[in-house]
Design brief:
The chain is α/β, with parallel strands linked by helices and 201 residues long. It has six helices and seven strands. Strands 3-2-1-4-5-7-6 form a seven-stranded mixed beta sheet, with helices on both faces. It binds S-adenosylmethionine (SAM).
């Protein structure tokens, strides 16, 4: 399950392709995030959309009144998303940033990661945990969507069991829940996913 996986050159991908054709493209707010924001009564505050890609999640959050920063390793992804957000009249702070070597210097009420963590190999996961921990305010949240162990096949992102998520994150986060769900996008059928709610200690 955890053999080394291959990923595209993200910058090349965003230069070559329209974001609408990408498997993760979802113009709406992720329904699992939507539900948990309601459940936690979170309607205002600062949010980081980590690995924003097409920027749809950042835009949906900004449309709901959150003060949003959106980052991605691909400068082209950031530039394209910034253009669309501007057309929509949304005020989002877009940053080109490699989360494993981050220059972000703010703490957020929550971080949303829909599909970035699950591209990192096992040996980088604790680096990710400590950077993301440093970007969240005390008692703030990490909302994480990643591929589930129930997703078949060998292609694409790493897969995780709920127990693995607990093992990786419990050093810095209280794992509130991990649910089996799907990853909304352009694939049919939709990939099996986990939605994880983690609260910083
Ligand atoms: C599966 S896509 C998900 C995009 C977006 N979150 C969404 O839901 O539409 C993963 C994203 O992570 C970005 N990414 C990969 N490695 C990264 C890194 N080290 N730092 C920041 N972003 C990264 C990629 O460029 C890509 O946009």
């Amino acid at each position: 399950m955890n053999r080394q996986r291959e990923f595209p050159d993200w910058e090349q991908l965003y230069r070559d392709k329209n974001v609408e054709s990408m498997p993760w493209f979802n113009p709406e707010l992720d329904p699992d995030l939507d539900q948990v924001l309601t459940k936690l009564n979170l309607h205002t505050g600062t949010a980081l959309d980590l690995g924003t890609g097409p920027g749809t999640q950042a835009m949906a959050l900004a449309g709901r009144g959150f003060k949003v920063t959106a980052c991605d390793i691909s400068a082209t992804a950031v530039r394209k998303a910034q253009g669309i957000a501007k057309e929509k009249g949304l005020d989002i702070s877009f940053r080109q940033d490699d989360i494993l070597n981050s220059n972000l210097d703010q703490q957020f009420d929550f971080v949303f990661d829909r599909g970035c963590f699950h591209v990192f190999p096992p040996e980088r996961r604790q680096d990710y945990v400590s950077v993301v921990d440093s970007l969240i305010k005390p008692r703030g949240y990490l909302f994480l969507k990643c591929f589930s162990h129930l997703e078949r096949g060998e292609q694409g992102p790493y897969r995780f069991t709920p127990a693995e998520i607990k093992e990786i994150f419990s050093i810095r986060f209280n794992v509130i829940f991990v649910e089996e769900t799907v990853y909304q996008g352009t694939l049919d059928p939709l990939p099996q996913a986990l939605f994880c709610v983690l609260e910083k200690y």
